[in-house]
């Protein structure tokens, strides 16, 4: 009797293997697992070397272009281990009958990180830490800052993360303005925020926080023009995608003093090159794209991705499909399990 069919699943997630050990072991009971752990996203060359012959992939932010998908002739499912999916050519996947899912479980952690970076940036917490370690206690005048209470927070993009940031900012006593391409006025009002035009948000916000998708329409959305429309002395926080920001224009706005500071968890090029001028500015707070990456969210995201893989190969339509109209014509229905 032939052995029962076990799909070949590429584990491209860069999450710590000790943290996600339990769902990975569960995955091994239903699939042959190809673990491509590098502690970072795979390069295109690395992905091309290991994706042929795989039926599914638990994906991070590596690039799933049409060319990559053409080399993945047996692939039926891309299960993103997070929320953002701009690295996946969704149209190309759909044309090939490849299902794409995601794990929308990171929004609370990302919102928490956003608020943490906002507080640290405005209150100069890294400078305060250095001051205690290096300077006389009395030299604290350079650490005097405004308080977040009474400030206006501008939120650009009001999806899951933007809404959670708004919920957290309300108890801080911040006024909240929201810009979103579609009408979210009812949702904003329920939280205690108000929708406005982007010009109104930029002109009146003391802190502007980015929470929109990275797409062809939003590449370098925050450029010299938009920075010029921001309130003088305002702060920028970006925990969404680095590609939303024209970094050279941001450097100019920070160096000129038009912006007081920026907190960045994401960059146009990652890992960040050592010669990126943003790294040399003292009014920039940096993090290595970790806003959604807590041990709690890592475990929850991979646990969900494993369940979606299991559902798919059991013939059940997975939840959180980004291309649900593909289900009836999906490659999964051509898999022979005998």
Description:
With about 350 residues, the chain is an alpha/beta fold. It has two domains: about 10-105 and about 295-335, Rossmann fold (3-Layer(aba) Sandwich); about 105-285, 3-Layer(aba) Sandwich (Rossmann fold). It has twelve helices and twelve strands. It has a seven-stranded parallel beta sheet with strand order 8-7-6-9-10-11-12, sandwiched between helices. Strands 2-1-3-4-5 form a five-stranded parallel beta sheet.
What is the number of helical segments per DSSP (H or I, 4+ residues)? Answer: 12
Looking at the overall shape, the CATH architecture of the largest domain is 3-Layer(aba) Sandwich
List how many beta strands DSSP finds: 12
**Uncertain segments:** none
Describe the structure in brief.
This protein has 338 residues and is an alpha/beta fold.
Helix and strand topology:
Layout: E1 8-11, H1 21-28, E2 32-35, H2 44-50, E3 56-59, H3 66-70, E4 77-80, H4 90-95, E5 99-101, H5 107-122, H6 125-134, E6 152-156, H7 160-169, E7 175-179, H8 185-191, E8 194-195, H9 198-204, E9 207-210, H10 224-229, E10 234-238, H11 247-255, E11 259-264, E12 284-286, H12 295-313
Parallel strand pairs: 1-2, 1-3, 3-4, 4-5, 6-7, 6-9, 7-8, 9-10, 10-11, 11-12
């Amino acid at each position: 009797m032939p052995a029962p069919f076990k799909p070949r699943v590429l584990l491209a997630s860069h999450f710590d293997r000790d943290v996600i050990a339990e769902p990975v072991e569960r995955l091994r009971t239903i699939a042959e697992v190809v673990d491509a752990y590098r502690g970072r996203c795979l390069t295109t060359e690395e992905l091309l070397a290991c994706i042929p012959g795989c039926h599914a992939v638990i994906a991070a932010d590596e690039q799933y272009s049409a060319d990559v998908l053409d080399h993945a002739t047996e692939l039926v499912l891309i299960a993103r281990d997070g929320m953002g999916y701009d690295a996946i050519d969704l149209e190309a996947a759909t044309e090939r009958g490849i299902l794409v899912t995601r794990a929308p479980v990171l929004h609370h952690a990302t919102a928490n990180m956003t608020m943490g970076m906002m507080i640290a940036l405005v209150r100069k917490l890294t400078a305060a830490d250095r001051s205690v370690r290096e300077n006389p206690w009395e030299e604290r005048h350079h650490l005097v800052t405004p308080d977040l209470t009474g400030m206006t927070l501008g939120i650009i993009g009001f999806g899951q993360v933007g809404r959670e940031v708004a919920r957290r900012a309300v108890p801080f006593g911040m006024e909240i303005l929201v810009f979103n391409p579609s009408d979210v006025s009812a949702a904003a009002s329920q939280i205690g925020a108000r929708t406005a035009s982007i010009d109104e948000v930029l002109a009146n916000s003391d802190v502007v926080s980015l929470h929109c998708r990275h797409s062809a329409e939003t590449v370098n959305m925050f450029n010299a023009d938009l920075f010029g429309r921001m309130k003088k002395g305002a702060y920028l926080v970006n925990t969404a995608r680095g590609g939303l920001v024209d970094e050279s224009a941001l450097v100019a706005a920070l160096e000129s003093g038009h912006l007081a500071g920026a907190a960045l968890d994401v960059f146009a090029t990652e890992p960040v090159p050592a010669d990126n001028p943003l790294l040399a500015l003292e009014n920039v707070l940096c993090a290595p794209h970790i806003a959604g990456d807590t041990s709690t969210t890592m475990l929850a995201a991979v646990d969900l991705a494993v369940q979606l893989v299991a559902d798919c190969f059991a013939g059940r339509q997975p939840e959180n499909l980004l291309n649900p109209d593909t289900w009836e014509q999906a490659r999964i229905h051509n898999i022979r399990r005998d």
